[in-house]
Description:
- The chain has one helix at about 40-50; strands spanning about 1-10, 20-30, 60, 75, 85-90, 105-110, 110-115, 125-135, 145, 155, 165, 175, 180.
- By secondary structure, it is mainly beta.
Amino acid sequence: MLRISLQQAAMESxxxxxxxxxxxxxxxxxxFTWPRMSHGDAEITQxxxxxxxxxxxxxxxxxxxxxxxxxxxxTLALPAxxxxxxxxxxxxxxxxxxxxxxxxxxxxxxRLHRVVSAPANANTSGQCTVELAPxxxxxxxxxxxxxxxxxxxxxxxVSGDSVAYTLDxxxxxxxxxxxxxxxx
Length: 184
């Protein structure tokens, strides 16, 4: 399960009950359970987990895509600023269909993002202003490529404790669920 964790706080006035919400940051968290596997595959998986050395190592995760994307040649038309969620993408013909859909994944730099708002068509300059989650973490200059076909993010394990497989009742290898978060 891939989801976004938010760093937020809400304060309420004891007199007027007016609320103020502050959002400081957000990042991806990941939890997955291994499918049933052979003993040989379990040994290979165990070696990969051990190679991470707990929280020291990182790995690339590519989410399963419900729909394939044929978008190529898209770049940032304007710089994308830290802690902003709106980006201006370029590479479309004037007024062309954007082919963007809600929930679509993309990669900008080394960071994985999800489209949460997008126009149906590009503007007359061949650009689309798109809202992404999580927020942009560091300045990305204009011209940065946007990967819609094979987007991935960098993650690290949440715990430094060793994870090992056990044998289930059928004497088949079984791993516990593994938790990771985006490596920033």
